Structures are given as structure tokens and as C-alpha cells.
Amino acid sequence: QKEVEQDPGPLSVPEGAIVSLNCTYSNSAFQYFMWYRQYSRKGPELLMYTYSSGNKEDGRFTAQVDKSSKYISLFIRDSQPSDSATYLCAMRISGFQKLVFGTGTRLLVSP
Amino acid sequence: DTAVSQTPKYLVTQMGNDKSIKCEQNLGHDTMYWYKQDSKKFLKIMFSYNNKELIINETVPNRFSPKSPDKAHLNLHINSLELGDSAVYFCASSPTGGTNEKLFFGSGTQLSVL
């Protein structure tokens, strides 16, 4: 079993839909949580970063962390075709530099 | 100007060959990384260097040897290539301070071993 699990998708939604992307993890020592977006044939780029539990909002994106359930989410409001990409969750333990990634969820937003 | 650039973008080679991938960052970061992404998009760290010093060395075959001539460069040399080495290899860098949540990735090198 991988430390971080993520549904590979693809997740297909129409433009304007609210998208929910999720990751579960097994190591309760993870404290820093990130979401990366990766377009086809490109490197991942950081979208959101949260520390410990709680919510963080940035424009159309909201990241949620529920440490009690070992579950993190990324919500995308008013999804656009340009949001079509693979979304990777990542997390790390405080004091350690190694990031552990999920396998990514492929999102397709149709016009 | 590309922040993290790696060359070549594509690499097709035969089993048993030796190849190198080069990476350069112009962000002034002290820490650089090599990640491997398999066909299922799973991204796994291989190595990390901080100011030319190796700080992370995951369980990677010793056919893989990173080299950091200076803090702006991290190259990856692979000896005796195997079919299972086919993947996309990403170089990344992060700011000084050790909180590497913000990794800046290159565009990747697609390695195909025939």
C-alpha cells in the first residue's frame, strides 16, 4: 500500500462545475500538504500549500486538510477547460525535506 | 528565461548504453532534486543536493549517479540502461531554508530504453 493514495481518474466534468479532488494518506506524521498541477508534457507546478489541518482559499481553489481522517481535498469552483490537467497531492513530515506524492488525478473539463 | 531547464527533452537509447541528463536552475536556489515519474504518473524522489552536498539518496540502483558541479547544476548519469529505466525524469529546485514545499520543476526528460 502506498503512503499516499489518489484516484487516477480521469474525472470528466462540464465547464463551470465544482470539482473535488482527494487524497488519503497513512502516515499521521505528515504535516505539510500541497497540491501540484501538471499539464501534459510539463513539470508539476505548485497550486496550494497548507500546514496541518484547516482550509486555505486562493481564487477558485480551496484546499482542505482533515488530519483526523488523514484526508485532503482540493476544490475547484467554476472549472474551466484550462484546468484540464493532472493534479498531484504531495505531503511531507516536519523537519524532513522529502516530499511524498500521490499518483495524480487526471481532470478533463469540457467546454 | 526558463527557471529550471533540463536537456535533452527526449532521449531514446538502447539497453546497456550510458546516458546523461543535465539540469540547470537560474533561481539562486541552494537545493536541487531528481524525481522519476513512471507511466502511471507516480512521482518519486531519487536524489537531493543542497549546495553541492548529497542530502537525500533514496533506494536507487547504483547505476544512477548524480553530480553537482555547483549549486546551479545537477546532472544525472545512468550506466547500463535497462528497460525499466524508461520514465520521465524531472529536475527540480527549491528555495534556501529547507522548507521545500515550493518545488520548481523542469519540463522533464522522456527517457525511452529500447
How would you describe the overall organization of this protein?
The complex is a heterodimer of chains A (111) and B (114). With 111 residues, chain A is mainly beta. Chain A has strands at residues 4-5, 11-14, 19-25, 30-38, 45-51, 54-58, 61-66, 71-76, 85-93, 100-101, 105-110. In chain A, strands 2, 4, 5, 9, 10 and 11 form a six-stranded mixed beta sheet that branches. In chain A, a hairpin with a 6-residue loop joins β4 (30-38) and β5 (45-51). Chain A is globular. Chain B is an all-beta fold and 114 residues long. Helix content of chain B is 0%, strand content 55%. Chain B has no helices and eleven strands. The model of chain B has no long low-confidence stretch (mean pLDDT 90). The chains are: A mainly beta (111), B mainly beta (114). The A-B interface holds A 2, 8, 32, 34, 38, 41-46, 49, 86, 88, 92, 97-99, 101, 103-104, 106 and B 4, 31, 40-45, 48, 55-56, 58, 90, 92, 98-103, 105-108.
Strand content of chain B: over 45%
Could you spell the SSE succession of chain B in H and E letters? Answer: EEEEEEEEEEE
Spans of chain B of 5+ residues with little confidence (pLDDT < 50)? none
State the low-pLDDT regions of chain A, or none.
Answer: none
Portion in helices of chain B: under 10%
- Topology pattern of chain A, helix = H, strand = E: EEEEEEEEEEE
The oligomeric status of these chains comes to heterodimer
Question: Which features does this protein show?
Answer:
heterodimer; A: 111 residues; mainly beta; 6-stranded mixed β-sheet; 5-stranded antiparallel β-sheet; B: 114 residues; 11 strands; 55% strand
